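protien #1 (seq + structre)
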Amino acid sequence: MNRPVVYQAASICLSYPDDAVLGTAGLVRRALAESAPAAAPSFAPLLDWWAATPAADVQRAYVDVFDLSKRHALYLSYWTDGDTRRRGMVLVDFRQRYRDAGLELDGSGSRELPDHLPLVLEFARHRPEDGAALLQEYRPSLELIRLALAERESPYAGVVAAVCATLPGRSPADRQQAMAMASAGPPTESVGLEPYDPRLLPLSTVGGRA
């Protein structure tokens, strides 16, 4: 599997579907077919839905799934650190990793936090080994997002599943197995955390879209 192609395709597909993003659908489909055919079926439901759905409806659905729902947050460190002070340092670490790789978010026009999954995937596209290591570090977050999207029967679920498939090890079958992947306990400042669920945190606020 050509991981950079999968990461770039997933970065595009998980970004806010403005006209520029939707206009890449054909290119994404062709790139996957040519360079990552094993991943192409995972993207097909989303790309087919884009093709059959008015852009305004696609955009409203994206906001509903990712901006208004606590269960599908694309901010990886939120699932592990919530709105705690520690998360601020984690976000600094994300940004430093990008800088160490020669990538700079400042001035890029992005309004997202550095742990936003499309940005992490863009980093992984440029630095596949470092990016895969970062994604594996936040594997429980990825898997919980994937499972929540699958439970919703969202076409975005396959895109996240394709990213998980680039990483070592088998994906967990359910939320309990996904949470068992986490080695750290819940942050002490989190509120409303279920005692058996050390990684799944309630999302109180979501940042702006790209």
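ok now protien #2
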Amino acid sequence: MTEIIREYGPFPGVDEVAGVTYDGEHVWFASGDRLNALDPNSGKTVRSLDVAAHAGTAFDGRHLFQIAESRIQKIDPETGRVLATIPAPGGGQDSGLAWGEGTLWVGQYRDRKIHQVDPETGEVLRTIDSNRHVTGVSWVDGELWHATWEADESELRRIDPQSGKVLESLEMPAGMGVSGLESDGADQFFCGGGKSGKVRAVRRPKRGG
């Protein structure tokens, strides 16, 4: 069973946690009409940006990307200003969002797909099929991970980015759903907890040194 390292929240005024990303210092999570920066050490929310934040969230090293209904917005994390907008491939049925290999990776929940998308134009470069509902998506150390959530069952899966084949699976405890997913680049994943209003830190499997 997956090791839950820590739970954050629920947070005041937050009914649901959607997308999650990490900027090297703060965990950003989407909560409908705000993007919130969480300090993972203190467990406190240190700032919020007033932007539409309905699903996946990503960080490219400089900017935040956020799914808002049928669009993906590129946001300045300092000011909260929306700098650019591209169409989301699922037209509003989009879930997770990740930055990897210089492109965006977008989960499509009910269609059980992950799309690789050009961050400038929104053009779909590649589509990977999954056999489960796709929620969060994360790239870490050249590995593509995504979360699934169906009924009361959630898991984190490492998949082959070419074929979509499942290479590794971490099962979450029953009733603990995962909406957003991001790694801290080291030994943990941050998982959005949907309507629980929580963010959870989960142990990432060690790789052979």
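The chain has no helices and 20 strands.
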